[in-house]
From TrEMBL:
The protein's assembly and partners: Monomer.
Its biological purpose: Catalyzes the specific phosphorylation of the 3-hydroxyl group of shikimic acid using ATP as a cosubstrate.
Molecular function in Gene Ontology: ATP binding; magnesium ion binding; shikimate kinase activity
Primary subcellular site in the record, as a coarse category: cytoplasm
Organism per entry: Anoxybacter fermentans
Name of protein: Shikimate kinase
Family: Belongs to the shikimate kinase family.
GO cellular component terms, semicolon-separated: cytosol
Pathway: Metabolic intermediate biosynthesis; chorismate biosynthesis; chorismate from D-erythrose 4-phosphate and phosphoenolpyruvate: step 5/7
Binding-site residues, Mg(2+): 19
Cofactor: Mg(2+)
This protein's UniProt keywords: Amino-acid biosynthesis, Aromatic amino acid biosynthesis, ATP-binding, Cytoplasm, Kinase, Magnesium, Metal-binding, Nucleotide-binding, Transferase
């Protein structure tokens, strides 16, 4: 399978840079960019926060799984996934069929700084968002690491640097070189 037929799938916690890096990486590699959360919001006609508030997390995860299946079938994309995509093993299975899965790791203290003023994250809308974020990371970290073929720490690099590292690692892994 040629690199153009594959997807580059970004997984990681909210605030890890999946959307920012994903858009830049897609541009750099001449691929389409897809954000599964945005796809879900467009399909349902409501925000992620609204879906969580009215239907709950279980229904959101079911809808997310449908979107992941649809998006994963296409090739030639950089896909930014929701932070909890790894909670359903089926998501990783379908994403891996045509995809290179990359974990954007970010330390909890960096995530907290990045997300402190973000009201759009339903899972950390609580009295102690820092504790909640650390708990989510504790649960998800092993799942991210198990799913990923490549891991990059986004806390110590600028988005441009992350993109350069990823392009190099992707090309090494695919046997492709950029001309």
């Amino acid at each position: 399978m040629k690199l153009e037929d594959k997807n580059i799938v970004l997984i990681g916690m909210m605030g890890s840079g999946k959307t920012t890096v994903g858009k830049m990486l897609a541009k750099e590699m001449s691929l389409n960019f897809v954000d599964t959360d945005k796809e879900l919001e467009e399909k349902i006609g409501r925000s992620i926060s609204e879906i969580f508030a009215t239907d709950g997390e279980d229904e959101f995860r079911r809808l997310e799984e449908e979107i992941v299946k649809q998006v994963a079938e296409r090739g030639g994309q950089v896909i930014a996934t929701g932070g909890g995509v790894v909670l359903k093993p089926e998501n990783i299975k379908v994403l891996r069929k045509k995809g290179i899965i990359i974990f954007l790791y970010t330390a909890p203290q960096v995530l907290i700084k990045r997300l402190k003023d973000d009201d759009s994250r339903p899972l950390i809308k609580c009295s102690d968002p820092e504790r909640r974020l650390k708990e989510l990371l504790r649960i998800r970290l092993p799942l991210y690491r198990k799913a990923a073929q490549i891991e990059v720490d986004t806390g110590r690099l600028t988005p441009d640097q992350v993109v350069r590292v990823l392009v190099e690692k992707i090309q090494e892994g695919s046997g492709c070189r950029k001309s």
